[in-house]
Model the fold of this input.
Amino acid sequence: MALDHRRVPGPEESQAPLLYAVPGQAAPEAPGREAAALRPLLARAGLLSQAEGSASLELGGGTKVLCAVRGPREAAEGRGRLLCEFRRAPFSGRGARPRPGPAAAARERELGLALQEALAPAVRLARYPRARLELTALVLQDGGSALAAALSAAALALADAGVEMFDLVVGCGLCRAPGPGGAWLLQPSEAEERAAAARLTVALMPGLNQVAGLLGSGQGGPPESWAQAVRLGLEGCQRLYPLLRRSLLRSAERRAAEADPPQS
Amino acid sequence: MASVVLSEAEKVYIVHGIQADLRVDGRGCEDYRCIEVETDVVSNTSGSARVKLGHTDILVGVKAEMGTPKLENPNEGYLEFFVDCSANATPEFEGRGGEELATEIVNTLYRIFSSESTIDVKSLCINPREHCWVLYVDVLLLECGGNLFDAISIAVKAALFNTRIPKVRVLEDEEGSKEIELSDDPYDCIRLNVENVSCIITLSKIGCRHVVDATLQEEACSLASLLLSVTSRGTLTCMKKLGNGSLDPESIFEMMETGKRVGKKLHTSLQKILDKEESLGTTRQKVSD
Done:
């Protein structure tokens, strides 16, 4: 097609408008928050009909994660295996739509592996020889602490599927504010995570008080600072535990009510 | 990771020995095996290093090429990591067997180097938004003898220390078109400052104690390990739990303290070796040229 000189051709590749934002236009300062404040949590188990177990977890401030478990399915190898997949919806992030490429796929694989390593201590895989459990975590909206929410949702989904577990796994995200001597904040929002100097996700089995997973990076400072962060995260996990248990009980009651409807 | 078959009796032997701070090869719980570091082994690269840690053999080559800066960071160059698990290492790596391990290593390396202060990427910029140096770091696993992450991080640090990036000048015409000129002198180059590059320390939990630098047999006995990336100043930049077991919170705090101690020692000895190799210069004996 001949080049049309009356029109202004746009760039050949599409880019997000945020790249051209003038730096220094700071967002209105959010009111200061308490470091150990937990965001409101909404957890529901048993909502997908096609999966053996499913759970949805929403954190106040906009993190929504959906998790589904399929299995146990027959597998060729001798030992039971848990295969985890972590996926983000393309519209889940605040910035540009991520280009599907090796970098994004590698990051999702890393988080899938982190999910699997955190859930493996909790699941009694020895009871499922020659079987595989497939777990998919889908982040619908990333408003901060997405991996931690995915961990809790995954544990709920496994429990909802009736997989034998030693304990639920509760995940908690933390981040360290930038600047020297920044404090560690529990369950950061998306803006706090973006500006953070260091990020950490802890996964705890609260009933057994065992740390199931740990993933952190950034300039967190000396080990004492990281130890303080881990303690804060574990405390947050202990506080979230009763909420997750209650949601499981509610879904079990709902299932029982559907199975035999109450006599009218 | 390469696996070795151990009987129950052997596992009990290893666990009980570690309880008494005595490992199978006579080391203490916080001792490394003998590490051999050699830089400038491959002459076609901008920098290279080979590290032998017991039976683990790693070869890292760094090639500096000119590319376009990323959109989000127009004033910086960047590093790209690739890991190749060669089939020589263990038969499990044949074909696509080593891909999962390679992805894990690459992701850990990216995680460590994504921290801003590790490498001064602003010095890799030639023309903002147009040209920059891209360092392609290729890691080759030649032999797998336990404790891969530590050996790889040492090799990457040594290779980056050894990297020589040629100096370029940017000439601008009257029309504004830029031309890049490479300096004629092959020894005129910029070196990278690797002071803030961290080293990975993997601490494996065996029984109730943790060990540094586990061999393949010890890795088979450990249920969970903690991977820490320690800088020369003793700060941690990355923390990751590996393995299918769980860790007690108290053990994690102990492991972090051990990691900091061992990391600082490792950094000082590594820096000594690298400076010594550097000072030898052209008088260093090379087998072939």
